[in-house]
Specification:
The protein has 626 residues and is α+β, with helices and mostly antiparallel strands. The protein contains 19 helices and 20 strands.
């Protein structure tokens, strides 16, 4: 149905624009994914933009729903703030994070008049300029030939135009469209692939929807191939578009701090140093969970298996960039975020930090995912943490690679805390963080399976209550041509055992059987605090009691965390065991792990112990006995 043209920017225009932009990105998503070659050819820019705008649209609809069905509508300020907030909390990937900042920049101008019901053409011009400037400021190392270039061109074209909002929006769209066509001349990797910048292509679609919202007319399609040569001399690119500094996707740097991808026997940081424990277990299998003690919090890993020099050097040359994408929301003040930017910039590349007023969205590519999360913990309260492993040999296409092929096999696992998310990611898995009280939906698991970009996927729910959710996600993924095996792990410690024997090189069925066997041979327990009085299989517990659950049933009720955990461990080891895995939550007493290690060492001579830091995982302690 054609849209009714609107001369001014009001709350209804915000709602209309969001809906049209979401549909435009839905239509263009697959083609944008297909041209995503820089700096990480992971084929998800279109999807990330779509999911980011979907969150913005949902927030706007919620504001309208809050005003009921009467004649009253939300104010323009309420609508644009909801749009910006929704985009911020739902931002995905480089492109989505920058889009969130573009919308936030616009909202800062559109909401400035306070009670004003609408904004005219000059106001829209100012909003587009603020959007372009704020997005550029959010990127650690801006590069031309990216979405930042396209946003700046849109603002410049709008500034040279007089008229109503429709006229300004059309000028911005045409300016962005022209700049998009020139991006291959500014970035050599785009020129070699014969495509325009994927993030810029998405922004042109969003601006096209803005034109349609104001005029009712659908603008002409944006190009997928370059038709002009740019000279890109700003922000680290030379006249041929080849960066003398740090190149980056969607306006962020691609680095030069290349390192071995995790799972290759060790992570190499930007100074060529080995971060031990990044991907070998006891027998040296690449890509397995390291059988080493983990020290620190929120996923820092300190292992014992060193990386051999030559393989590490080869892997670093192959990947050409960091192995992980880390994204999280962060509650922190401005001063702490300034320190965080400096620390993350030293850790990796493609750094984008957007937001303000105490809430930020942080995006970075690093080799040490745990260190990136730890930096957030030091700055404030990180949550909704997403860690994606790029995979061996396909990490950064800034070295001129074509879009990556699907890997043969991947593991997707639900994990209860940030520490385990980092551990699983370093082992080569794609983790999905299950926040306490917020289990992931099947759609989130399907997205994780897609992000794994594999023909075959092993799915580890790591929670008995998530089995049906995981089964629904697996069924959906199968309809998309992905072979998925669901291993019904009931605890993250069972997932660790399964991942430790995972071998991507053997037949899929054999790998699934071995992983299932390892998980099934691992008894699991957890120590938690009772939230209220209730009946249990061990008797009546009171709120505040410490509960020890073995294989899902309450086996011990106590008053002391360490004593209860010791009793649970003794009962589990009565049936024998060779390896005890302890995953310690942030709220567990600091001495608990050391006490349990000593208990095993003194009373069970043939049993080994490994300790991981789980972060905010809900349970005080997870225990696994293999």
């Amino acid at each position: 149905m054609p849209q009714v043209p609107q001369t001014f920017f009001d709350a209804l225009a915000v709602r209309t624009w969001c809906g049209l932009a979401l549909r435009a990105l839905g239509r263009a998503r697959e083609e944008i994914d297909a041209i995503n070659v820089y700096p990480v050819a992971d084929g998800d820019t279109g999807t990330n933009l779509y999911l980011t705008l979907e969150s913005a649209t949902t927030a706007v609809e919620a504001v309208f729903a809050g005003h009921g069905t009467g004649c009253a509508e939300p104010s323009l300020a309420d609508a644009v703030r909801a749009m910006a907030h929704g985009a911020l909390i739902g931002a995905r990937g480089n492109s989505g994070t920058i889009l969130a900042q573009l919308l936030r920049g616009m909202a800062q101008v559109l909401a400035e008049p306070g009670d004003a019901a609408r904004i005219d053409g000059p106001g829209l011009r100012l909003a587009l300029r603020r959007a372009a400037d704020s997005a550029r400021q959010a990127v650690a190392h801006p590069v031309e030939g990216t979405v930042l270039t396209v946003a700046s061109a849109a603002a410049e074209a709008a500034e040279g135009t007089e008229g109503d909002c429709g006229t300004v929006a059309r000028a911005a769209y045409e300016g962005a469209r022209t700049a998009l066509a020139a991006t291959p001349g500014q970035l050599a990797v785009l020129e070699r692939a014969g495509v325009v910048d994927a993030g810029g292509r998405g922004l042109v679609a969003v601006l096209g929807a803005l034109v349609e919202a104001f005029t009712g007319e659908t603008p002409r399609e944006a190009p997928l191939r370059g038709t002009a040569r740019g000279r890109g001399v700003a922000d680290g690119t030379d006249s041929g578009g080849r960066g003398r500094g740090r190149g980056a996707a969607d306006g962020t740097d691609s680095g030069g701090r290349g390192a071995a991808a995790a799972g290759s026997g060790g992570d190499v940081d930007g100074r060529g140093q080995v971060a031990a424990g990044a991907g070998r277990h006891a027998d040296g299998e690449a890509g397995s969970v390291p059988r080493a003690r983990v020290e620190g919090t929120a996923g820092s890993v300190s292992g014992t298996a060193p990386c051999e020099a030559d393989p590490c050097a080869a892997d670093a040359a192959d990947t050409g960039g960091p192995a992980f994408e880390v994204i999280y929301l962060l509650e922190a003040d401005d001063a702490a975020v300034a320190r965080l930017r400096a620390r993350l910039d030293a850790l990796g590349d493609s750094l984008v930090v957007v937001g303000g007023d105490g809430l930020w969205n942080v995006h970075v590519h690093v080799d040490d995912a745990g260190a990136a999360v730890e930096a957030g913990v030091e700055a404030g309260r990180p949550y909704r943490i997403r860690i994606t492993h790029f995979g061996l040999g396909d990490a950064h296409a800034g070295r001129g690679r074509a879009p990556r092929e699907r890997v043969q096999r991947a593991v997707v696992a639900v994990v209860p805390g940030e520490g385990l998310a980092g551990l699983y990611a370093e082992a080569g898995a794609t983790p999905v963080l299950a926040r306490p009280g917020e289990p992931p939906a099947s759609g989130e698991l399907v997205q994780a399976v897609r992000r794994a970009h594999a023909r075959e996927v092993v799915l580890l729910p790591n929670d008995a209550e998530l089995r049906h959710t995981a089964a629904a996600a697996a069924e959906q993924a199968r309809t998309e041509g992905i072979r998925v095996a669901l291993i019904p792990t009931r605890s993250a410690v069972q997932g660790i055992a399964a991942l430790a024997v995972h071998e991507p090189g053997r037949r899929f069925d054999e790998d699934v059987v071995q992983m299932t066997s390892a998980a099934g041979a691992t008894r699991h327990a957890e120590v938690v605090v009772a939230e209220h009085r209730s009946w249990t299989t061990a008797g009546i517990c009171q709120a505040g009691d410490v509960l020890g659950l073995i294989d899902g049933d309450v086996a011990v009720i106590g008053a002391d965390v360490t004593a209860t955990a010791r009793t649970v461990l003794d009962r589990m080891l009565q049936a024998g065991g060779e390896l005890v895995t302890l995953v310690v939550g942030d709220e567990a007493p600091e001495t608990t792990a050391a006490h349990l290690e000593a208990r095993v060492r003194e009373s069970y001579l043939a049993v080994d112990t490994v300790v991981y830091r789980g972060g905010r995982q809900g349970a005080l302690l997870l225990i696994g006995v293999e």
